[in-house]
Amino acid sequence: MEVRSAKIHIIEPQRTTVVAGDFDVIISGGGPAGVCAAIAASRLGVSVLLLEVCGCLGGVATSGMMSNIIDAQNKGGLLKEIIDELDELKMVSEHYNCVDPEALKFVMEKKALETGVCIRLYTRVVDCIVSADRKMQAVITESASGREAWTGKVFIDATGNGDLGALANCRYESGNSEQQLQAASLCALIYGIEKNQIPDLIQQERAAGKKNLYTMLENAGITPSYAMPTIFPISSNGYLLMSNHQYHVLPDDAQSMTDSTLEARTELWQQISTLRKLEPRFTDLHLGTTAAIIGLREGRRINALYNLSIDDLIEGRIQPDPVCKSSFSVDIHGAFDGNKGYTSSGFKVKPYDIPLRSLIAKDVSGLLLAGRCIGGDFYAHASYRVIGNAAPIGEAAGICAALAAKQNITPDKVTYEEFLNAGGNPHPEK
Ligand SMILES: Cc1cc2nc3c(=O)[nH]c(=O)nc-3n(C[C@H](O)[C@H](O)[C@H](O)COP(=O)(O)OP(=O)(O)OC[C@H]3O[C@@H](n4cnc5c(N)ncnc54)[C@H](O)[C@@H]3O)c2cc1C
Asked: What phi, psi does 399 have (nearest 5°)?
């Protein structure tokens, strides 16, 4: 890896920052976790601000162009509401668990607005104010409106990468014991071919379709960087494509993200151009759009009151304060061992509880964690990181935040009984 850090620093003049708003609950990041947190908190009657750096809500599922919802089967709550609304709009695919990403933006934004959430897009959280006794007071943002401060009672880090926790100097981990991270992927929307023309590439026996696509490209001289390139149908002639792996992409290094995005986009273009020339059925295949952001599977895992471990998954541990049940396998994308596909590293997962304590930051008070940045180890994260868990984790964080804000207490003081009484529903299938 090329080291680009400059040795020279400049001292910026001290400045005064306008307080643009004061809210009960402030959520950084509008992915599946942040959106569900915002709606859940707002429904409990508190004022909610949702800050998102991209131009839409949905995170990896929309800006990242990967809306295949894994581990949704045993979930209720907001995730089910969202999927049911998409189903009514006929925007749920019969293949995989895919929903239309554009429809997902629409439904998430509509539901958040209907509930009274104040949404601010194009706004990045760049700093925060923490008091001497380690309580979060405000977040600082940068946007077209300049630098602004937002004060609140309770804050939620739903940035996926754990930006806010890191800005607050919380301890965190990322990657495995050797700081190796899962691979990233730049996903894409493709269109211009009917589903019945590509049964060999979208078989329900999923691995076969992936292997066929890989072999087809390899034989044509374009070896994909991802060994299991996948086509996810979202309509009769539109698909999401996940066919590249970018290795060693650092979630706290814009140059690393830039370089990998440029490389991945070139690879995607080559893949589609090659297919177009390969067989007549691909002649009209188009690369509709590449995702607005490179999909990082892994960022920071912020130190929480309870950090989930692989042992919790192997044992299927029941927790005293569950927010949802995760059933997904350990799913590590990466080339640590030269494997360009994915692996469970030999771990077998039994359905396990995600506890509320894993959503409460340990090193600063007034901060909840939602989505893939909750407390856990490398292998546990590789399981709970999917959308079907991020959404209910977000919903639980929103409920807890609202309860804390209403009582002017920190989230760790909210009792589990209060959480359940306010609508927390860890086992909707029962
Ligand atoms: C390539 C790839 C493929 C995947 N495939 C699947 C799959 O098939 N099925 C599945 O269920 N899951 C899949 N996942 C995992 C899943 O998409 C994510 O883990 C899930 O989206 C996590 O939700 P989240 O809300 O925690 O984070 P994210 O979806 O990452 O959302 C975080 C949001 O915060 C915003 N943000 C970040 N930093 C800041 C900041 N400083 N200020 C303001 N806003 C900020 C981001 O723009 C984003 O909108 C995949 C992930 C990747 C990367």
From this structure: -65, -45
